[in-house]
Design a protein that fits this description.
With about 325 residues, this protein is an alpha/beta fold. Helix content is about 45%, strand content about 15%. The protein folds into three domains: about 45 residues, lambda repressor-like DNA-binding domains (434 Repressor (Amino-terminal Domain), Orthogonal Bundle), CATH 1.10.260; about 120 residues, Rossmann fold (3-Layer(aba) Sandwich), CATH 3.40.50.2300; about 130 residues, Rossmann fold (3-Layer(aba) Sandwich). Helix 10 links the parallel strand 8 and strand 9. The longest helix is centred in the middle third of the chain and has 16 residues. It is elongated. Keywords: DNA-binding, Repressor, Transcription, Transcription regulation. Pfam families: LacI, Peripla_BP_3.
Length: about 325
Amino acid sequence: MATIRDVAKLAGLSVATVSRAINGSGYVSEDSRKKIDNAVKILDFRPNEVARSLYQKKSKLVGLLLPDISNPFFPLLAKGVEDFLQAKGYQVILGNVQENPERANDYIHAFSQNNVAGVLSAVDNDYAFYNSVHPLVFLDRVGKDSEYSIHADDVAGGALAATTVLKRKTKEIIVISGPKEIDRSQERLQGVLSVLNQQKSNYYIINSVSFLLEDAISTAQAVFEEFSQVDTVIAPSDIHAIALIQEAYRRNIKVPDELQVIGYDDIPISNLVVPPLTTIHQPAYEMGYKGAEMLYQLMNGQKVMQKKLILPTRLVTRDTLRKKEVQ
């Protein structure tokens, strides 16, 4: 890996001159700049961003905390973040927390040591270590105390899932509740139950402790073991819905004839499973992109017009629900 000394040697200039040119910290003649630019290209030199940010007291690094990158929803969110920030000259440092508060705390310290300009987080905001992070924007998993945040309208999304299901013939409805400690999960459940209760529908609730794949699989198994007559499931995520479809296949249960399922998220793979999953779309990419835009405004002293942004959800109809009943 080339160093600033290598650039100076190839350009035939002093290290101090090259440093001034790279950091924009003083006068460098046009002829010297051309020599430095040429040497940088030949050597493929990349400055130490941390060292440069400490010198300039302005960083081009941003921290991004995600709960679990094995869940396809979050890489899509991260892509939105990166697409916006890279276009603005920033680099993103990713922290994969894996639903572990201690790991989140470690990453926050690492972000601080790397002198990040700001942090985007899709990890719950109930932890004290966030007190030292500024500026900070929450994505998706947003608590009531978050000053700057962006998430989908989960109450409306949950209600849409239940309304869609009730337009089909149902016998025994199972509602899978996501983790109780995640506000978005509980608002999703609130939306589902508001519709089912209003329509006086019979249903049962089964809880899932997390959105991790292994928990989705164990929850799917529990659904069939505890409710042998289940014919309709409202899932809290596409991961849970896909786990249900796979478990149904293993038990020779036909989807949607014997079991109909609706998911939530509209992750890319939901259109590739057999049968393709009917689900509620929440805009993960847009969430990441707009969240990064909000953080960029905060990092650069610009006014944020809307501190709390809620994005709409929508139904994506595929093949895991039965045909609507004729009214």
